[in-house]
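Q&A log
Question type: sequence-to-structure
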Amino acid sequence: METSLQRIMRKTGRKPIECKCQKCKQQCKTPCLGTPEDILRLIKAGYKERLAITHWWVGIARGKLDFPVIMIQARQEENGYCTFFRDGLCELHDLGLKPTEGRLSHHSITKENFKFGKSLSWNVAKEWMDMRNGEIVEEIIRHMTS
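Response status: OK
Response body:
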């Protein structure tokens, strides 16, 4: 059975990459989106308190959806940074817990070559609506509400 990560890699053509250039470090300031599988791993690793309900509005802004996608994601702190952004990098990186968008993102993604259907954020958001992930989402909700 194909995982969410495999499905997103197939649909976007992206592969996991590690780049520590300034442009990529700048991306790490904003929480990257995780699939239900990613978020469940974070919960099980003890990071529940650093996660929150999120509404993904990009689909509406781009005229592709008429509703926000509701999901659980890393918190954005009051300073505007991702809760996992420490000393210029993602603290989850070396733990193997970095969410899918962060694992597949790279500074080569620009406004000029952006295609909504192949975008990482859209493909991660779709995983939250995919019935194949229903049991994982239910487990996440149980953890978050207990």
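Response note: The two ends are 30 Å apart (CA to CA).
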